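Researcher: Please predict.
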Amino acid sequence: MVNNNLPVTGMHTGVMVEQPGKDSVLFDPAGDYRKNDPYNPRPWGGDAFYGKDADLGSYVDHQRRTDGPDVNVYHFPVSADDADKIRSNIDGKGAIDPGWCAVNVGDVLRGIGPFQGLGNTTTPSMMDGEMRRLQPPQQPQSPDDPILSPSSDNPDPSWYP
């Protein structure tokens, strides 16, 4: 997900990993999603959400409500091993300081599967450009393929560019 509601640099970026049989993980580095959650001690929000807390629909809605409508969500099919590597990278990140979202999303993805050629991602707009460049042609997906995307039961397909 890339929030481009700030000219030139973009506003924010995050990533979600879904795998059959495993809890989803939503990585919102230095983001403000659920910042008012009484169980979350970080004033700017959390960095990673798991299971039912990893709700991409709510996350994208939050980005749109907070900053505006220019939010892009990209789908990338990945192997189960690649999804595990990305999840492991997210788990190893810890707390992220504000202003470092795109760098950290790039760090958890770079060099894995379809992100082998992921270039510089110091800003959300740079991440958006890289996602567009790396985006595979749209193809039907098997329901068993792990993906970096919203769940198939999401009622709002309007997120897709």
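Model: The beta strands are 2-3, 12-13, 15-17, 25-27, 48-50, 71-72, 76-77, 147-148.
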